[in-house]
Design brief:
There is one protein chain. By secondary structure, the chain is α+β, with helices and mostly antiparallel strands. It has two domains: about 200 residues; about 45 residues, no CATH class. It is built from four helices and 13 strands. The radius of gyration is 20 Å and the shape is elongated.
């Protein structure tokens, strides 16, 4: 059964968002390019991390434990005026690095106007959502599982997204976050690689820029084909031309 303190969770989400994303390491740059470039044609969203979340070269790491890292998360920046009814697709690609889902964590949190008014969409396997295998969730707000918690808006603990829209469909969303805070039960660490909200993709794997070529950064970088750069200028040219000029190294 889920054991989640809703009041505590909402307070965390509402007061800890907006922390700037930290600088990313340039390790494994070839893998980064391979993951990111196929998504370039899609709309790309921005995000911020909060709590104990860290931006790393392979994605955003969310951590929660019983000592110094009680919670972490990533807030996905939505277009202004997005309402509950506007959401039709909500999915996540991730890996489990430690622990498992527990107590409603990890989850998407949809924060609405007012005090302690949020909708929670649990990540994991029905009916208790304690099992959460690595991979892609698919669309969490279209499947048959009753994984939506609408208790703070007059609904039930195991509800559907359809009923959430019936209850508050016209309300504007204040924030949409991914949250991990089940460390009271088991140390949780999840690696987020991407999320999709409707047709917008949020890439948690950083995209390198020409500035990353500086300070000898070009030594550790490759183009999309795995070729190394001859020098800093070669590297800068590759990114400045939007990847049209391939690397001239080995």
């Amino acid at each position: 059964m889920l054991r989640y303190n809703i009041r505590t969770g909402v307070k965390k989400i509402k007061t800890k968002t907006g922390v700037a994303i930290s600088g990313a390491s340039l390790a494994s740059i070839g893998l980064i390019m391979a993951l990111v470039m196929p998504l370039a044609a899609k709309a790309t969203g921005t995000y911020t991390v909060f709590g104990s979340a860290t931006q790393q070269s392979d994605g955003v790491h969310l951590l929660s434990d019983s000592t110094t890292h009680p919670y972490s998360g990533a807030t996905l920046n939505l277009p202004s005026g997005t309402t509950v009814s506007n959401l039709s697709n909500l999915s996540l690609d991730y890996q489990v690095l430690q622990g498992h889902c527990v107590g409603g964590s990890q989850r998407f949190s949809v924060v609405l106007p007012g005090i302690n008014r949020s909708i929670f969409i649990y990540v994991g396997t029905s009916p208790n959502f304690d099992s959460c295998p690595s991979g892609s969730t698919g669309n969490l707000i279209s499947d048959a599982d009753s994984r939506v918690d609408t208790t703070q808006i007059g609904g039930t603990f195991y509800d559907t997204w359809a009923n959430a829209k019936t209850l508050v469909g016209s309300e504007t969303i204040q924030s949409l976050s991914l949250v991990v805070d089940g460390g009271w039960s088991v140390t949780q660490e999840f690696l987020l690689t991407s999320a999709t909200v409707n047709t917008t993709t949020y890439n948690f794997v950083p995209v390198p820029t020409k500035d990353d070529c500086k300070n000898n950064g070009w030594h550790t970088m490759t183009d999309a084909n795995g070729k190394t750069f001859k020098n800093q200028g070669d590297c800068v040219s590759y990114f400045a031309t939007n990847f049209r000029n391939p690397a001239n190294g080995q």
